[in-house]
Amino acid sequence: MKISKNFFSGFCFLGESELFDEYLIKNDFTISGFSYGAIKAFEEALTTNQRVDRLQLFSPAFFQNYDDKFKRTQLMYFKKDANTYVQNFLSNVKSPTNIDISKYYKLGTIEELQELLYYEWSEEKLQKLLEKGTKIEVYLGESDKIIDTSKANKLFKKFATVYYIKQKGHLL
Questions:
Q1: What CATH number is given to the structural domain containing 25?
Q2: Does some domain include residue 2?
Q3: Is residue 1 part of a domain?
Q4: Which residues touch 164 (CB under 8 Å, ≥6 apart)?
Q5: Which InterPro entries match (predicted)?
Q6: Please, are residues 43 and 52 in contact by the beta-carbon 8 Å criterion?
Q7: What is the pLDDT of residue 5?
Q8: Beta bridge partner(s), residue 13
Q9: Within its chain, how far is the Cα of 15 from the centroid?
């Protein structure tokens, strides 16, 4: 399995970029990321001194509309039984499909989960990236069971081309 240097993997994933082949632009000037990896891709595009023409965010982890109690509860369940938490999480990630994602599985850490739950997508940072000359594309699935795509869409549409894909979940 080839892992792209310009693609950042989602929480509990590794090497899943091929799942996004129909949307993915593969060149030296595009950075992409899925879910938690979208956060990492965004921060890389923002801080790198290398040329970045396009940033592709696939189902970006977007939890800033959830309260602290929800986030603490997620972390508590993960700490209590990480394997059960992750299996439930992955079944929601792949819904509404039955695709086998086992070959991409990598147990995530509590630190990664905490980072993705508490990450704040900043309008100031999004604007800064646009000013660097980077075009931002965001891909959201209408049937996503992980994030509230309407809230994510509301923020990202100010700064990005947003593709809202009908009858698709977190994996698009």
A1: 3.40.50.1820
A2: no
A3: no
A4: 140, 142, 149, 153
A5: AB_hydrolase_fold
A6: no
A7: 75
A8: 105
A9: 14
Question: Token pair of 5, please?
Answer: 């240097």
Is 126 in contact with 41 (CB distance < 8 Å)? no
User: Which DSSP helix (H) or strand (E) runs through 164?
Assistant: strand 161-165
Q: Is residue 17 part of a domain?
A: yes
pLDDT over threshold 50, residue 2: no
6, 30 contact by CB (below 8 A):
yes
Residue 170 in domain:
no
- The total number of residues written for the chain in this structure: 172
For residues 90-106, give the mean pLDDT: 94
Structural domain for 104, as ranges:
7-165
The count of structural domains within the chain is 1
DSSP secondary structure letter of residue 62: -
Whether the CB-CB separation of 6 and 31 falls below 8 Å is answered with yes
